[in-house]
Structures are given as structure tokens and as C-alpha cells.
Design brief:
The structure holds three protein chains of three kinds.
Chain A (H helix, E strand, L loop, with lengths): L3 H27 L2 H5 L1 H24 L6 H6 L6 H6 L5 H22 L5 H25 L23 H30 L4 H33 L9 H26 L3 H23 L8 H4 L1 H25 L14 H33 L3 E3 L1 H18 L2 H4 L7 H7 L1 H17 L5 H24 L7 H10 L2 H26 L1 E7 L4 E4 L2 E12 L4 E10 L5 E12 L4 E5 L1 E5 L2 E10 L5 E8 L4 H17 L15 H9 L1
Antiparallel strand pairs in A: 2-10, 3-4, 4-5, 5-6, 6-7, 8-9, 9-10
Helix pairs in contact in A: 1-3, 1-7, 3-6, 6-7, 6-8, 7-8, 7-13, 8-9, 8-11, 9-10, 9-22, 10-11, 10-14, 11-13, 14-15, 18-19, 19-21, 21-22
Chain B lengths: L8 H30 L8 H22 L4 H28 L8 H22 L9 H6 L7 H14 L4 H13 L3 H15 L3 H14 L6 H13 L5 H12 L3 H14 L7 H12 L11 H7 L7 H18 L4 H13 L3 H14 L2 H13 L10
Helix pairs in contact in B: 1-4, 2-3, 7-8, 7-9, 8-9, 9-10, 10-11, 11-12, 12-13, 15-16, 16-17, 16-18, 17-18
Chain C lengths: L2 H29 L1 E5 L6 H6 L2 E8 L5 E2 L4 E7 L4 E7 L11 E8 L5 E7 L9 H9 L7
Parallel strand pairs in C: 1-2, 5-7
Antiparallel strand pairs in C: 2-4, 2-6, 3-4, 4-5, 6-7
The chains are: A alpha+beta, B mainly alpha, C alpha+beta.
Pfam families (chain C): CcmE (PF03100)
Subcellular location (chain C): Cell membrane; Membrane
Membrane topology (chain C): Single-pass type II membrane protein
Amino acid sequence: MTVEIGQFALILALTLSLVQSILPVFGAWRHDGRMMAVAVPTAFAVFALIVLSFVILTHAYVVSDFSVLNVVENSHSQKPMLYKITGVWGNHEGSMLLWVLILTFFGALVAFFGNNLPPALKANVLGVHGWITTAFLFFIVATSNPFRRIVPAPMEGQDLNPILQDIGLAIHPPLLYLGYVGFSVCFSFAVAALIEGRIDAAWARWVRPWTLTAWVFLTGGIAMGSYWAYYELGWGGWWFWDPVENASFMPWLAGTALLHSALVMEKRSALKIWTVLLALLTFSLSLLGTFLVRSGVLTSVHTFATDPGRGLFILAILTLFIGGSLALFAFRAQTLSSGGLFQPISREGALVFNNLFLTTATATVLIGTLYPLLLEALTGDKISVGAPFFNMTFGPLMIPLLAAVPFGPLLAWKRGDLLGVGQRLMTAFALALLAVAFILYRTSAHEVLAAFGIGLAVWVMAGSLTDLALKSGIGKVSAATALARFIGLPRSVFGTALAHFGLGITLLGVVSVTTFGTEQVVAMKPGDTLPVAGYQLRYDGLTPATGPNYTEQQGRFTLLDKAARPVDTIISAKRFYPARRTPTTEAGIVTHGVNQFYISLGDDMAGGGIVVRIWWKPFVTLIWLGALAMMMGGFVSLLDRRLRVGAPAKAKAPRPVRAEASA
Amino acid sequence: MFRLDSPRGPIMSARMEFWLIAVLLTFAATLAVLLPLTRRKTADAADGQYDLEVYRDQMREVDADAARGLIDPQSAEQARAEIGRRMLKAEHEAKQQDNTKIPGMQGARWVVLSAVLSVPLISWSLYALTGSPDVPAQPLAERMAKNPADGSVNELIARAEAHLAQNPDDGQGWDVLAPVYLRLQRPQDAVNAYRNAIRLQGESAERTLGLGEALALVAGGTITGDAQAMFERAAALDPNDIRPRFMIARGLMQEGRNGDAADLLQNFLDKAPADAPWRDQLKTAIERIRNPAVAAANGPDQEDVEAAANMNPEDRNAMINSMVATLDERLKQNPDDVEGWKRLVRSYLILNRRDDALAALKRGNDALAGEKRNDLVAFAKGLGLELAEVKP
Amino acid sequence: MSRKQKRLAVIGGALGVLALAVALVLVAFGQDIRYFRTPADLTTEDMASGARFRLGGLVEKGTVVRGAGTEVQFAVTDTLKSVKVIYNGILPDLFREEQGVVTEGHFTPDGTFVADSVLAKHDEKYMPKDVADSLKAKGVWQGN
């Protein structure tokens, strides 16, 4: 089939999503059931058309169809097949198509699972989703068409960049997009609620699964991106507070806040306006993130100027959706019935506390990320805001939040008993103190901050276990009953506990590796040994090796234990890709339990030695294992039967239903 | 493949296949809008009913939690009361909504009609603006399998390159490709190809001379030490070839040794056979070197060499130049001709007049509009020309 | 607590957290803003301030000297001026003479720049964006 079908399907999807944007919303306004019903089939059809379009573009990459400009610019006939496919979204046009693919995927999911939604709300949600789809499809067709043809077709493509040919880099953008774009559903729900001017506890119940889904994917995407940077860049760091990382972290923070505030709204019908605002902000941050990264604004404000058409378009979409939704919010917020107030010491109070700190933390990250851009735009001064800024602002804000985590799930709704909860958390507190004391003892009281950091981590982990133990009645009832109750606990309770436990694990990893990790830069000659973390590391020398499309110098290291027996071999390499004349460093990483040895090779020395950078990274894998636990927690929560609310008996006999309800 | 016996056939059917699929897709998309609109009207449950469903579920949840002992009876009672209040409210809303419901359709027919019609209309006109339905898909494997005779020069080169990438020790292939590179002003590739040809096929006057020219071209026309050495090798390999001597003479002149250059050529002329076709021209050239007032400071240029060596009897460059000038003139009169602009840009590039090519691209870009302009820009980009290089 | 008190408690808490955040941001900005400079941009105050900078430019040809152990010296230039840089550690893969580089560190009293990080590559074009912009603005480098 010809490539042109892809282009045609793209345009057809644009037209259909235009209909999807207008007709259902108009129908909901006029209470016209048939117009509203258009939303569902169009949402499916738009998704199907984008899938077709994406498949055709991928096929063009696979068969190296160089009559497509996008393929010429980003592929090469000699590229390995896997990287031909991942190359589809390794460029601006293709990644925008992937973005829209995921967007319409979520639209179709809402249409599919939306039977329990009131028809007007469903029509409005899908309509608003259609607005987003229309804007982005129009952007693609007008300025970033991946199906642009070139005549005559060149015989070879241009790109074969080895650094981009990495499986981690290939997988994490789609995962990250699933998270970013997932929040578009929450955005659509929020705008739909504002349009209808009607918002209640049921709304929160409908939004929660979507928030959770997006959050799970975003957590995975961020963790994966972090691990990729860790092993591929060879710098030994796992988080750089790089603007691109911040762009994904901000929606995550706001999304986490949304997750918690929607809970308050669902249970207590409070915090309504705040939750709607948070839903708008989370997706706005996603949009901001996507475009800061995509348009290249982050490396420099000048990137906008190099392609004025595209840059202005992006700016227009951002303004339209962020500004428009906030204006609608300002206009409609007073008309929404505000929720009830509550006691500060209660479950909902704890969740507000959580929201307060999370959103403030988001704001500091936003300031740190955007301030350099603003300053450069206004004064032309180029500055950079680095890790110390974020450690100094974000770090302190997280401490009270983390300290409060174990209290939240244990407090009762409406009026909590802080003292009682404190008593029930005594065991967890004792464990945390024990950890502090242990670290202080082991480091001869030199690492006070680290001791408290680890204490905090233990506190969070033990706290979430306490929650599970108390809820299954361990210690109060017989073991058998406790087990039965444990198994019978709602999945969302497990989800909460698992996610909070994961947070503790990540914190433990972060604190350990920052305080107890060691880094040495030394010049070594073959046969030299170096003490690292109770082992002796011996450098055995360089051996040349050849890969499929590169040559490399492998530095071999042997890890010896105290009795000088070899325990492990570590191979770190410097690669050279002759096709692109590009050198890369392949870090040598060996995992012992949850700890890692990490070795990067540097320059050759005169006289046969080599500069080597060696890290000992205790507990480092906990950082990502914790994220995995958080994802699992979100996933388990998602499986909770309670989030699947049934649809009311269909229409034909509404009266008996009502009679039953009022009985 | 079947493509060989009727080259136009498969393309036509591919195009028809495209239009067929486009029509089917449009039809399906229109149906997605049309079907719900024509369905018989069913009364949906009022919005409040959906809310009630959620609250009933919450109620069950509270009961379950209370039974499990997760919340104390007092809280459970409070929660039940609260949910009950929400249910009453939702129920009230559901009733009210029933009364306010307006039966649809009347007066909205035009909205429905335009929505349904917009699907084919907008999509087809947008596609007409942006699409290129006449360009067939060109998977690389299929193009490689095509009959080589009907390919363009670039395609032939790419084919040869692909072949040599697989068989880097095919000396004959390098030998064929090297002068082509040189003529196409790709000196770096030419150097590489000549080196490979010499490595595999051995030295010859032709190859060393070509390598020397390529090296000089890489250096922007300056005859470097490397190039000079190559010309001397070529002269030694073929004592009767005048071309390397001209190049050596030019190199000497670049160092300001005009006398040596003239002597070298005179020496060669003296030994040359009396009926050599280039005798007269060589004489003039020597004259010009000895007498700088007459000579252009550059000494014998490429044209002299070629004419002298009787390689190219008709003045090819002059002819192309005049053709290009005609084309240029015609485009001034009749600028809406995208093919003409393409040819002009390419011709200037082949003549190594990059600035003129850029100027032509700019003019074409100003004269054309829409898809034609994009076509031209994309074409130029394929040749390595970017509009951004043009100074406004 | 009365309704009013509850509301006050929440608003007070929110303002408290905000005030804390603002204070943190201001303190952190005071300590951790690093200006980007090319050698010709540097003023004597810059050199004397002891503040951290990001210094960008091209690695000057013929200036890379590997010292004993892991120390490396080189000069960063924007073709107008050049600054001597000392760095102790592993240079990035794409560190080459006459290629763009961004170093981060501070000046010693004798005007040498002590870098604790060296970045050589920000994009596929082998030219860090900031460096490219500055050099273009000075008209000493053209590129795309």
C-alpha cells in the first residue's frame, strides 16, 4: 500500500476529531442524545485511523522508503531493524505522531470503558478530548507532516547515530508519553465538569482510575529514563535535575497530588474546586514538558526563532489550552458548589497536607526550570540552575511530607485521633530510631544527616507495614483470622501500602548512595590494585575487541575478596563507531545484591596506564526497585473492584430504578 | 518482477488502489458520524441515575469495611448518613433533569447535515492541498531490483556504492566510479575511489593523474605537494601524455616559478611528434607563460588542458553555459514552472556555481507557491542546498 | 474548632509552607546561579568574584596537556581570548581539540579556571547550543 494512505488517514482523523470536538458538546448542551452518541464511534474511528497512519509510517521505515522525507532524514538502509522501528519516534515529526497515537488511544479507552458515565458528561469529556486531538493533528498536518514526500527519492538516508541506538532510549519515550498524555483524560474530565457546572463526589470516582493509570506509566517512564542515563552516559549519576528530567518530574508531582486530592473529593465531597484545578494544572505541566523538550526551548530560547512557524504554533496551542482552561476555571469556579470543611487533624487533613507540600515542591521545580529561560529572554544573560538549587529547595520540602506519610492512611476520615495514631505507630518509630542509632554508631556520629535520612526511610517503610498489620488485626485476633482478614483487605489498601513502601525504598537508596557511595579517579597500570568497599580491585589491562559495527578497547578488572580470591570480573569499554567516527563509553557495572560497582574508562596515559573512574554504589538499585514498587502499588489499586462502578439499568425503565432508590 | 514488462501498469494500479482505499476510509469515517445520528432515539438514564450508582457502590463499600472492622461503627454510621444525603441530592437532580429535557433534532438539522458532509469535504480538500497522490511508494529493495538502465545518474552511483560496500575489493568498480566522482565535484570520494583503484588494480597514468586532480580539488584547486607528486608519477608512467605536464606546470606557476613551467612544457614540445593535434595550443600556452602581459596570471587552465589534450573537441562547458542562460531567461518570462527551476538549480550545481544555484533557488522560491514551492525546496535540500543559506 | 478557625488553620498552613518555599528559593538562587560566559565575556569582577561559572568555547588547538595522574590542562577560546582550564577527572568521549566544550567551575586568584565538570556534547551537531550561539553572535563561527 502506498505511503499516501498514511497521509490521507491522518487528515481524515483530523476532520473526524473536529466533528468529535463540536457535535457531542453541542448535543450535550441541547440535551440531544443522538448528537452526544456521535462521540463514541468517532473516538474509536479516530484512534483506528491514527493507528493506520502510524503503521504505514513504521512500514516506510522498515522498507527504507526514501521517497518519504522523514525517513531520509532519520534512517539509513544499513541500520539494524530494531532501530529502524524505534527511529520512527526518534525525531520531531514521528514523536508527535506517537503522541497523538497515545492521545487517541486514551480517547478510545474512555469511549470503551465509559458506560458508567452520564451521557452528557461522557459526550463533553470526549468532546474536550477531541479539541486536544484536533489541535495536535492540525499542528502535525500544518507544520510537522511526517509523510512529506521527496522527488526524486535519494538512494540513502542520513542518520545512523550510534548514541541514539540504545534499547533503553528506544523504550522510555513511549512509556513517558503514556504517562504525560494519560493526564489528558483528567484534563478533559475537569473541563467537561466546568462546562456542565456540575461536580460531585461521583466525578472524583470516575476520574481516579485514569489518574492512576497515567501515574503508573509516568512513574515507569521516569524511572526508566533515570536508569538509562545512569548506565549509558557513564557519569555514574542517576538524576541530574536536568531540565528535560524536570519536565517529566513536574507532572508526576502534580499528578501524585491529584491522586490524593481526588480521594478526598470522592469520600468527603470536599476539595472539589482544588481537585479540578489540579487536574487542569497536571496536564498543563505535561503539555509544557512535552513542548519544552520537543521544541528544544530548554537548551536555548533561540530554538523558537529557527523555525518560527512551528514555535509559534506550539506557543499558540499551549496558550489556548492552559490559558483557556484556566480562564474557564476562573469563570466557572464560583458557580460550582464548594465542598464542606473539615477538621485539620483527620485523613482529609493529612491529604491536604500532602497536596500542600507536593504542589509547593512542584512550584519550586518549575521556578528552577523556567527561571533561566525567562532571564535569558528578558536580559540575555545565560545562567544555569543546577542540582544544588533543587537539593536546597525540593529536599527540605520533602522532609515533612515524608515524615507525615505513615500517619495518613491510619487517620480516620472526618476526625482523626493524632495521639492514638501516634501510639499505633510506636513500633515503626522505634525501628526508625534504631536505624538512626545504628548508622550513627557505625559512622562514629559523622553522618548525622544520612542517619536521619535512613531513619526517615525506615519510618516510611515500617509505617506502611504497620498500616497493613493494623488493618488485618495482627496481634489482636488469632493468626488464622488475621491471615483471612489480610487476604480479604481491599486491593486499594495494598496499593497504598505498596506505593508508600516503594517511596521508602527509593529514599533509602537515594540517601545511601549519596552518603556512602565512593568515587575515585585514578590512573592505573595493568596489575595495579585499589581498595574499594572492602574488596581489592585489580586492573588486568586493555584488550581490543570488535562488535558488529564498532571496535572497542575493553578494560578488564578483577574484584578480589579479602583472601585475594577473585570474586567477579568487570569489563568497561571505550567504543568507536567508524561509520559516524563517534566514540562512546560503555560503563562496566556489576551488581552485588542491591549494590553496584561502576567503572568508566578515561584517557590513555603516557607509559601504558589509563585513567579510571570507579564508583562504589551501595543500595543504588533500590532507587529503581522503589519506583517499581510504586508502579505495582498503583497497578494493584487499579485492579480494585471498587473503581469499577456499574452503569445504571439502561434507560427503558428509569422509573422503577428511582422508586427503589427512594424506598 | 512483473514491473519489467509493463513499467506503467503497476504504478497506475497502485494509484487506483490508493484512491479506492481513500474512498473506503472516507465512507467508513462518515458512517461513524452518521450512524448514531440516524439511530432510533432511546431515552438515556438521567445523569443523576449514574451518580446514584456510584453512591450505592460507596454505601456497599462502607458496609464491607464496617463488617471487616476497618472502620468503627460510629464512623460507618456517619459515612452512611453522608452518602445518604448525597443520594437524596442526586435523586432530586435526576427528577428535575427529566422535566427540563428537550427532545432533540428540530432546528439542529443543519448542524447534523454539515457535520456529516464536512467529513468527506474537509478531508478531501485538505488532502488535495497537502498530499502527493502521484508519488508511488519506493521501498529500497524494490528500487535496487529495478532495471539499472532506466535509473538516473545518482541512482546508478548509489547502486555502485551499495555494490562496493558489499565487495570493497572490486577494483574495476572503483576504477569506474572514481572519474565519475571527480566529474560530479565530489573530490573526497574521488580520492578514496582512486586510492582503492590504485591499491587493487595497480598504478596507471590515468589513475595517478585522476588522484592528483582529486587531491588538488580537495584543496580548493591548489596543487599541493601530494597532488604534485601524483602528477609527476603520472608523467613518468606515460611519457607521451601532456595532461600531467600541464598540471605540473600549473603547480610550478602557483609557486611563482613561471620560467621553470615554461621550460618544462617547451622541453616536452620539442620531443613531441609533429602531427600532435595540440601542438599549436601548447605553443600559445608557453607563449602566454613566458609573457605574463599576455597571459592570465593563472597560466594554462583546465579548458586549455582539455582542448590541448584533444579530450573534448566541442566546448562542453560553453554549451552548457549557454543552455543554462537560455533556461534562466525563459524562467524570467515564465516563472511558474517548477520543473524548469529544478533543472536550473541542478545545472548551476553541476557547473559548480553554487552561489548561482542558491540565487536561482531563492528566485524560484519567490516565484512559486504552495506545494510547488515545497517541492522545489525539498528537491534542493536533496541536493544539499538549504534556503536558509541564502543571504536576504 | 469553629468553621472560621478551621478555614484559618488551612490558609495559615498553606501560607506557612509557601513562605518557607519562597525563602528556600531565594536562598538557593543566591548561592547557586551559574552564569554562562565565553572567554571574551569575562570581566575582572567575574574573575575576582570566586563565583561559579559555566565557561564555554572551543578547545584551543595544541593546548591539551595531560599532567601527572588524572589532571588535564587545556585552554578554552572563543578565538578572541582564551582561558586556561585545569580539570581533574575523565574527559568526555567527544572532547577534541577545536571542538565546542562547556566547563563548570570557578576561577583561582591567578585567573586559571578550575573545572569540576566538562561537557563536550549537547546535541548531534557536536556543538553545545550556548557555545554555538555565543560564537555566532561574535561572528567568529558559522554553522547550521
